[in-house]
Design brief:
The complex is a heterodimer of chains A (218) and B (232).
Chain A: H1 5-13, E1 21-24, H2 28-31, E2 43-46, E3 50-54, E4 75-82, H3 85-93, E5 99-103, E6 106-108, E7 113-114, E8 117-118, E9 122-123, H4 129-135, E10 139-143, E11 154-155, E12 170-173, E13 176-181, E14 184-190, H5 196-201, E15 207-215
Parallel strand pairs in A: 1-2, 1-5, 5-10, 6-11, 10-12, 14-15
Antiparallel strand pairs in A: 2-3, 3-4, 6-7, 8-9, 12-13, 13-14
Chain B: H1 9-12, E1 21-24, H2 34-43, E2 48-51, H3 63-67, E3 71-76, H4 83-90, E4 95-98, H5 101-112, E5 117-120, E6 134-137, E7 140-146, E8 150-161, E9 166-167, H6 176-181, E10 183-194, E11 213-216
Parallel strand pairs in B: 1-2, 1-8, 2-3, 3-4, 8-10, 10-11
Antiparallel strand pairs in B: 5-7, 6-7, 8-9
Classes of the chains: A alpha/beta (218), B alpha/beta (232).
């Protein structure tokens, strides 16, 4: 069995270091916050203009003026700040955010990512994703390894319109933890119920198995 | 004596016309100038180019102007919450220019600050950079993006004084401060309109020089797009 969404989020949380400022995208990335241990001090940034984002509000205390980038009502923690969209993206583009976690439809062996448009089918837009992949010091992609038909989403070359070129260095999929290097994908860890060979077989892009490759632990 | 204070949105929108470019504040439905949008709809102006991060939902925010087909072109970063939008775009009725969110914010900031264009790393090598100048600085590629200004800018603030000084509330600030700087005529709708001197100068987010017209909202819904709560 591949990992479920919670397990992907849990594995990504291990990459979040004490003292980090982190931006989490919509979907699986949002779940990462649930697995940060209280021993780590982590500030979450929401690109609509909030640093120090807290959990959802208690029922009855929702505030229409306090939302996250997914337009959900949230809270602000002690030490939080509010700012304009220009300031928010100055933080992002200027390299002040330590880590961004976002979803993807495709990532290729050169580290390019596509996640904002399917020509003729889906026109939603990139929101802040292009700025985030261009600006964050470290980008981790949380994604499903294959689509519903079993086709690899880790491609030789992205087929969909790109969000960013050669900007992804790490992927946590439901199949494993993969680094993107000069030599293509390198499998570091695989889902406990799979084998390293099975992950390589399910991957279209060039993938090698790291010498110290091991099953994922949580 | 000159005054920036108007009675309501209808009065404050005097001069809006067909074929103009309007800049509209807000992120999702948060911090949108509800009263101005309704007054724009009621004015019946057509062939609007509208610059706003999102396009509202089907029955609220800029969705109201899509429904009446008053918008010819949208410039946004994300329009995924609006089915009317998708339908009109797919059928070719509506023009759309996608602009990455941070680039959009900076283009508005630049427009208001008298900067015609700037280089950004965002979007290099993607569709967004097609046809635009790319230049290398310190070994990295950057794309040239142009500043944006509008005939009118519509913003929503929490408090404003009669000189037009504005204070925003929480994440309702979002695009409003940059948009306020980038309109030939900037109209601010505020929840509380106070006398000059009542706002603490240190707390003003948008200095009144950017605001030409101001009015107190007559009614507002402040709709929540995604109500999410936790159990106590």
């Amino acid at each position: 069995m591949p990992l479920n969404k919670e397990q992907i989020a849990q594995r990504i949380s291990q990459e979040v270091q004490d003292g980090y400022t982190v931006n989490l995208g919509i979907g699986i990335p949002t779940l990462v916050v649930n697995y940060i241990p209280p021993t780590k001090t982590v500030m979450f940034q929401s690109e609509n203009g909030l640093l120090g984002m807290g959990p959802f509000p208690l029922e009855g205390t929702e505030d229409a003026d306090l939302i996250n980038a997914g337009k959900q009502t949230v809270t602000a923690l002690k030490g939080a700040s509010f700012f304009s969209s220009a300031d928010s993206f100055a933080m992002i583009r200027g390299g002040h955010i330590d880590l961004t976690v976002l979803g993807a439809m495709e990532v290729d062996e050169n580290g390019s990512i596509a996640n904002w448009m399917v020509p003729g089918k889906m026109v939603k837009g990139m929101g802040g994703a292009m700025d985030l992949v261009a600006g964050a010091k470290n980008v981790i992609v949380a994604m499903q390894h294959v689509d519903k038909e079993g086709n690899s989403k880790l491609r030789t070359k992205c087929t969909l319109p790109l969000t960013g070129v050669k900007c992804i260095k790490k992927i946590v999929s439901d199949y494993g933890v993969i680094d993107v290097t000069e030599n293509g994908f390198v499998l570091r860890e695989y889902a406990p119920d799979l084998t390293a060979e099975a992950v390589v077989k399910a991957t279209e892009g060039k993938m090698t198995i790291a010498p110290d490759c091991k099953p994922m632990t949580f | 004596m000159s005054t920036k204070v108007y009675a309501n949105a209808k009065e404050a929108l005097k001069g809006v016309a067909d074929n103009m470019t309007y800049l509209v504040g807000g992120f999702g439905l948060c911090g949108i100038p509800e009263n101005c949008i309704e007054a724009l709809r009621d004015s019946g102006v057509k062939n609007i180019t509208c610059v706003s991060n999102n396009a509202g939902v089907d029955d609220f925010g800029l969705g109201l102007l899509l429904k009446t087909r008053q918008i010819k072109k949208m410039m946004s970063s994300y329009v995924g919450e609006n089915a009317t939008f998708e339908k009109q775009f797919m059928s070719g009725e509506l023009e759309l220019e996608f602009c990455p969110q941070g680039t959009l914010a900076e283009r508005l900031r630049a427009g208001g600050a008298g900067i015609p264009a700037f280089y950004t790393p965002t979007g290099v090598g993607t569709k967004i950079a097609e046809g635009k100048e790319v230049r290398q600085f310190d070994g990295r590629d950057f794309v040239l993006e142009k500043g944006i200004t509008g005939d009118f800018a519509f913003v929503k603030a929490w408090k404003g004084d009669k000189f037009g000084n504005l204070v925003f509330r929480k994440t309702a600030r979002n695009f409003n401060p940059m948009i306020a700087t980038a309109g030939k005529i900037t109209v601010a709708e505020v929840e509380e309109l106070v006398e000059i001197g009542e706002l603490e100068p240190d707390q003003v987010h948008t200095p009144g020089v950017y605001v030409q017209r101001i009015f107190k909202v007559t009614n507002q819904e402040k709709r929540i797009e995604q109500r999410t709560v936790r159990k106590g």
